[in-house]
Structure formats: structure tokens, C-alpha cells
# Entry
Amino acid sequence: MSGNPAENLRIASDVKLGSGVRLHAFVNLYGCEIGDETGIGCFVEIQKGVKIGPRCKISSHTFICEGVTCEAEVFIGHGVMFTNDRWPMAVNPVGKIQGPEDWKCLGTRVLRGASIGSGATILGGVTIGANAMIGAGSVVTRDVPPDTTVAGNPARVIQSSHKDFE
# Structure
């Protein structure tokens, strides 16, 4: 671990850190796995159950919620927001604060070599294909094929070398 002093890091005892992981100040990690040689910028939160592969770069001010898996060599820009619930509610149908039993966590997969631009929002339940590129500020509402660039709100294909889009 490198970066600022340990008192500026909040790393729970259940976090699995690979070798050569670089953490900067004010990160909050709990119940997650971080692969070898991954770098995590300032003000990043990574929740329980998240798996980050080796040699990834996660830029500052990013939020990675439960249910996200990133394979190797993924780039995540500044201020990227992942979600895991398409119908978030404060209370259940009988008016009580929702608990874990009241909703289903939607998993999200970011495959090897994908890049997500700064300020993007990734909705739960999508897969971002290998070597895909998500434009800055995009809102990803559906799967992105491998080797495809998407941008906008909602994100639309703007370039693809994927055979399904030729």
C-alpha cells in the first residue's frame, strides 16, 4: 500500500488486497476484493461483494456498489457511479424502511480492458464488454458489446468493431 498515511484510509478487516495495490487518501473499502497492482484514487468507496481484477485504475470520487465485478485492466474515470437497484424505494409495500429482504441486488460486469469515462452512471444488471469504451457523462442502461464505444444519455453506440454492429 502506498499513498497518504493509514489514518486517512478506511479499510475493513474483511477486505482482500492483492499485492502492489496503491490506495490514496480517504478511500472506504469493505467486504471487497482488490486485485494485484490496482490503483484506487482519493474519495472512492467500494462496497461488500465487489471484485476488482488486477491492474485496474479507479479514479477519484467513484462509487462502486455491491454486485459489481470488474475484470483485469479496467479503467474507471473520475466520479463514476454504479447502481444496483433499478427501482429504489425507501420503504417496502407496508411502509417500513426497506431491509435486505425487500430488494434484489442487480449484478454488473465490466469485462477485461473496458474503459469508463468520467462522470458516467452505470445502471445495475448490465455487462460492459471487453475493451468497450464508455464516453464521459454517459448513462449506461443496457449491455455494451465488446470493442464498442458508446456515449450519451442513454448511451448509444457511436463506434463498433464488434461483428454484430458491422
Observations:
- The radius of gyration is 16 Å.
- The chain has one domain: 6-165.
- The chain is about 0% helix and 30% strand.
- The CA atoms of residues 32 and 50 lie 5 Å apart.
